[in-house]
Design a protein that fits this description.
The protein has 176 residues and is mainly alpha-helical. The protein has eight helices and no strands. The radius of gyration is 35 Å and the shape is rod-shaped. Mean pLDDT is 81; it is low at 1-14.
């Protein structure tokens, strides 16, 4: 940091004028933020505010306005970092709660006993598990399709006994 301060003191008013800065005391701002902001970014901000100040003068000293601007930007950056950390923590907690709900089902799935268990459940129980994201849609579809085919074979000669809960009915008297 001492190197930066020495470099600042070596630069004179002519150096700032060649960068397009007329009325800004850059040294004061650099010392105030002492390495918290990149030097190129600082010069860019100073140049922008110097340009504005050359057209319409600020009510306060330009250095004070720039310091306040940089302070606000640094605070925003700090808050965005905190927000990202909070969002990361929330994702971790959401994953943890989801794992608490699905732990048993995942173990059953991994050891191959889930399909057999699901075959013993009613359609309403399967729908409940699906709505709670405990089973996959393809697992539910597989069971529903298998049951439909079994029913279709069983009742192939008597169509009036087929399960009609999945059929859209514009006229319910047709099935009676």
């Amino acid at each position: 940091m001492n190197l930066k301060l020495k470099k600042i003191k070596i630069m004179n008013r002519e150096s700032y004028n060649t960068m397009g800065l007329n009325s800004v005391k850059v040294e004061e701002i650099m010392i105030h933020f002492n390495g918290k902001i990149n030097q190129n970014t600082l010069f860019s901000i100073c140049k922008e505010f110097d340009s504005i100040n050359s057209i319409i003068k600020f009510d306060s000293r330009i250095e004070d306005v720039i310091k306040e601007y940089i302070s606000v930007e640094l605070e925003k950056e700090k808050l965005l970092k905190q927000q990202n950390e909070i969002n990361h923590k929330l994702r971790e907690l959401n994953n943890q709660t989801q794992l608490l709900k699905t732990n048993k089902v995942n173990r059953m799935r991994s050891n191959g006993s889930l399909e057999g268990f699901l075959n013993t459940l009613t359609k309403n129980q399967l729908n409940d598990l699906l709505s709670h994201n405990l089973i996959r849609g393809e697992e539910m579809s597989s069971i529903t399709l298998r049951r439909f085919k079994e029913n279709q074979k069983q009742y192939s000669t008597n169509y009036n006994q087929l399960e009609t809960e999945n059929v859209s009915m514009s006229n319910p008297k047709i099935w009676n």
